[in-house]
Amino acid sequence: MKLRTVFVLTFFAAIPFLLRAQSSLDVSSLAEPAVNSWPTYHGDYSGKHFSSLNQVTVGNAKNLSLAWIFRTSSSTQGAVLGGDPQTANAGRGNLAFGGGRGGNAGPAIKSIPLMYNGVLYVTTTNNAWAVDARSGREIWHYVWQGRSAIGNRGVGMYGKWLYFETGDNSIVSLDAATGAERWHKALAPSTATNFSTSAPVVVRNHVILGVGGDSGTNNTWVESIDPETGELQWKWMVTPGAGEPGIETWPSPEASANGAGGPWQPGTYDPDLNLFYVPTGNPTPTYNGPSRKGSNLYTSCLVALNPDTGKMVWYYQFSPHDTHDWDATQTPVLIDGTIDGKPRKLVALANRNGYYFLLDRTTGKSLVVKPFIDTVNAYKGVDANGVLIPDPSQEPSPGGSLVSPDSDGADNYPSPTFDPQTGLFYVNATSAFSIFYMPIDPKAPSGYSRGSEYHTGTFPSMLRALDYRTGAVKWQHKYEDTGFWSSTYPGMLSTAGGVLFTGDPSGNFIAFDAANGKILWHCPIGGTQSNTPETYMLDGHQYVVVAGVDTLYSFYLQ
Amino acid sequence: MLRSISRLICVGFVAGYCLSQAAGAQNATPQPNGVPGNSNANTAPVAPTRGQLAYTQNCAFCHGPDAHGGAEGGVDLTRSAIVTGDPTEAPLIAFLKVGRPPRMPAFNNLSDDQVQDIAAFVRTQAASTTPGRGRQIAVAIVGDPEKGEQFFNGAGKCSTCHSVTGDLKGIGSKYSTLILQGRIVLPRGTGGYPRISFGPPVQGVPPDKPRSVTVTESDGKVTSGDLMEVSDFLVTLKDGDGITHTFARNGNVPKVEVHDPLQAHLDLLPKLTTDEMHDLTAYLVTLK
């Protein structure tokens, strides 16, 4: 028994050395759609979550079978440790959500794992694992000992290094081969009400990070650091300071400085325009509109930043003066499309507020603003600039305001997908209602400012396929049950094989025919699908990998 | 209509302002040494101060920075018997070792001393009577009861199923305004986050009325009961004897017919306005 243990330990200890020689990512490859890897959070810079792989097809998807599973463990035994043991809260990061009955109880995997050279890099808050993509075996486990946060979206990779944000606002660089810490630096004090959950995105020699936090009194920002040294290159604050453009949309510089707007969704990037697209979070105090009169720029916006300087080139605000926790941290999907017969560079975003937006991504000009759920009721319409006009009577109020969607949103951070073959933009849409309350507190409200939300207990959800040019629904698949978590959380993947992957509220991972919504295959994965699926080729197999709460599942055609 | 809305909102703000004035007065009461807002850098940290750090690092994300509940669904801890019911903190220490998965994880990383400090901090927060989140919020009644009555008997079609002298008799005394208004919209769930309909019973909220389902197999066999779960692939029900049955689904085989006793609420919901909801609430609270 002991001998066997020694053998196993020796074997796994050797793996990092076997892999070390080949695990160096050339970041210039990120501009092209990946085939043999999943080298960045969105798979490539476009955020389409579309793969050109076509081994799995509409015809054979029914034969998908399990390759392996990898279940995360909170144990620190054998792990590489970082951070401060005095504040250790290892492994208790993510909110654990179960998918109805039988849901797993561990911290949920909300990250999209990177896959490079046969190794997957997957995270939960303060935990990162390297997993053998052929066997599902753990290669190494890194644990940051520190304060937890709601989740972690994953790592970024540059050469042979990984970059990982911790719940308590540090950025850690790890050796991809061993999990050994190379350096770490604090992005914000660990005691700040900020929290850091985003996945770093690497553009040339810029590691671009988002720092969030909307439950206290803080500002938030995007920053770029040097991949070798961690040195700050630039910092873009979401909310403006005194005398800066946009400050007129806040009652005071103090309100702006505590206005949050956390940019925690990893951005997308157009190499030709050299613009990095960052969606920003909701303003705080979240439910308390009267304390921050104005449109509260640049919260709930999409901003286009120059990744070399951090300068903002344009912005568009999805939810002016948001009071319903509708951050805009959904994926900005870059589409090279055709409008009125002319080729256009576009960016599409299905917003938590229930509207589908299509913008010109060169200028930020609004082209389409159309609800993708049928129940939206918080806006009066659209102004001359194509910007939504909030209805003040639907702000949280002492008597309660009946609003759809609820604060979870019509969708949320998990990625939708755009399939250039069908021209359809797919999104899991939820039509929930909440009653929003706000007892006015004149004494310096903060965080959620003791506003309150009564969820009305019905959360019908459906997969909708939208014409990207108009937002019109081409087909939909209504999920039978609303489950505990509706379908807000399962993200999506489309493929050149014509197969669309996502999850239902009942804990099934499903392959749909992207053309018409016909179900081709499914697998119950023990809990609600908790991340966005990915695909890559390895050893001649097209793998599809997805997380169900605390476990990764890998499928292929045997 | 617009004027009516603004009037109601105005009344609402006044009511809210009065509430918060009362809260502000409470906030002015002396706070224990070292609690935020009372800087006392020269003395060693006392339990509530140490507790606030541990609280902020471990609990605040879900339960809010002030322990009165958070947007992520954590309950108001100042009203939790587990936290404040026993001065030795034995129940809290025991509870944190196991948690209540899947919503509440175990926090066995915390020492007993840290748990004591956290409880001390939460107790300081309980001194404030500012309305907390969730069910404890005091809701202002801003609607027009006469319009509510008209809606009840008219456009809302509430009287099709309900009677103010029958099933709704005394409804205004039975629930808080918050719960009453929520149940007018849809009497399902607890108003909590997430949308848990199958969780343990919550004090003051009756259990959900189950949906019923009839499953007819291809050989004509019929099974009926309370619907437990339904997807494109399976349907699970519990029959009158308490036996659970699960059927695999393949398109329309077997035939599955779901009946939701709350369908009229679900049909009304997308049409119901905030004003109509306020009016209905103002009417139903008068039914003492």
Question: What this model shows, in words?
Answer:
The complex is a heterodimer of chains A (558) and B (288). Chain A starts with a helix and ends with a strand. In chain A, β16 and β17 (275-279) form a beta hairpin. Chain A has a 5-stranded mixed β-sheet with strand order 1-33-34-35-36, with no helix packed on it. Chain A has a 5-stranded mixed β-sheet with strand order 3-7-6-5-4. Chain A contains 2 helices and 39 strands. Chain A is mainly β and 558 residues long. Chain B is of the alpha+beta class. Chain B has 11 helices and 5 strands; from the N terminus they run αααααααααβββββαα. In chain B, a hairpin with a 3-residue loop joins β2 and β3. In chain B, α2 (47-58) crosses α6 (112-126) and α9 crosses α11 (274-284). Residues 1-44, 127-135 and 194-200 of chain B have low confidence and may be disordered. At the A-B interface, β26, β30 and β36 of A face α1, α2, α3, α9 and α11 of B.
Mean pLDDT of chain A: 89
Distance between the termini of chain A: 33 Å
Distance between the termini of chain B: 29 Å
Number of β-strand runs of chain B: 5
Q: Describe the global form of chain A.
A: globular
* Helix-strand category of chain B: alpha+beta
What's the quaternary structure here? heterodimer
- Radius of gyration of chain A equals 22 Å
Order of helices and strands of chain B: HHHHHHHHHEEEEEHH
Chain pair sharing the greatest interface: A-B, 80 and 81 residues
Beta content of chain A comes to 35-45%
Structural class of chain A: mainly beta
What are the low-pLDDT stretches of chain B, counting only 5+ consecutive residues below 50?
Answer: 1-44, 127-135, 194-200
> What summary fits the major beta sheet of chain B?
5 strands, antiparallel
Helix content of chain A: under 10%
**Lateral arrangement of strands in the main beta sheet of chain A:** 1-33-34-35-36
